[in-house]
Amino acid sequence: xxxxxxxxxxxxxxxxxxxxxxxxxxxxxxxxxxxxxxxxxxxxxxxxxxxxxxxxxxxxxxxxxxxxxxxxxxxxxxxxxxxxxxxxxxxxxxxxxxxxxxxxxxxxxxxxxxxxxxxxxxxxxxxxxxxxxxxxxxxxxxxxxxxxxxxxxxxxxxxxxxxxxxxxxxxxxxxxxxxxxxxxxxxxxxxxxxxxxxxxxxxxxxxxxxxxxxxxxxxxxxxxxxxxxxxxxxxxxxxxxxxxxxxxxxxxxxxxxxxxxxxxxxxxxxxxxxxxxxxxxxxxxxxxxxxxxxxxxxxxxxxxxxxxxxxxxxxxxxxxxxxxxxxxxxxxxxxxxxxxx
Length: 341
Hints:
- The chain is of the alpha/beta class.
- The chain folds into two domains: 4-105 and 330-338, Enolase-like, domain 1, CATH 3.30.390; 119-319, Enolase-like C-terminal domain (TIM Barrel).
- The protein is built from twelve helices and 14 strands.
- It has an eight-stranded parallel beta sheet with strand order 5-6-7-8-9-10-11-12. A three-stranded antiparallel beta sheet has the order 1-2-3.
- Strand 7 (171-175), helix 7 and strand 8 (197-201) form a beta-alpha-beta unit.
- The radius of gyration is 19 Å and the shape is globular.
- Mean pLDDT is 94; it is low at 335-341.
- It comes from Shewanella psychropiezotolerans.
- The chain crosses the membrane at residues 268-291.
- Its cofactor is Mg(2+).
- This is Dipeptide epimerase.
- Residues 131-222 form the Mandelate racemase/muconate lactonizing enzyme C-terminal domain.
């Protein structure tokens, strides 16, 4: 059955500037795809990522190019064979899963034989900033069990000491976004152990992964920019202990499930992550979160406002979104959610 579709780009202002080692942003630029078979209407959201050469325009062009080949009977596995991983495939794959659930009058987690948790503990992310400002922000989250810290290579230990002092009972994920080198990593690891650092994401540039071969870190290292799809796992073995699964990297929920299952079989720690987007982008990733040791789906918390019927957050506890948002019931309020139609 052929499908009609609409593509929209949206800019969601952030509550405040969000800075990482590669730069800063003040809004989340997202792509929304709506599909209809004439009876059911489905949708999804993805976030183009400049790190991989993606822009709003390039992702929209990819979607436009492939949509003549997309029909309601197309499976996620078939989509993997006609599109590369990335934000364009993600939004199509997740919209198709939403549509299939509505056509079958069921839900996506049932179609995929996945568990659905009503609550997940998620990290809340601190933007890169001056040490005193990061410490103050950490203090405001001191009751959260898990806080994610964006760092560059400048004054790593000093910042983490102040942050730990402000939130002594929290665990921390450090995300360096490829900003460190092997000497920094080797020197800093043992110093971070007493500061409740539980995981370090992508300390080195992805092209330097080989430097981690056989490296025995005191804190698990998590592949983020180095891990996109299940085929990457062979390369990551014996270098990283964990992988960060993001749907905009895997190119959708179909490959995210495959990556999660194969990573577990290989003994990797699973982390579920996100780009900065609305609850609509978090909804498919939430299903992977049920199988993850670390969850980082706080994208909506970074926004000035989220979509209606989105996730709720309370001291690091993330409650499942309304059934009207994605993947479970007919989205009768979708027009109101989208605002632009």
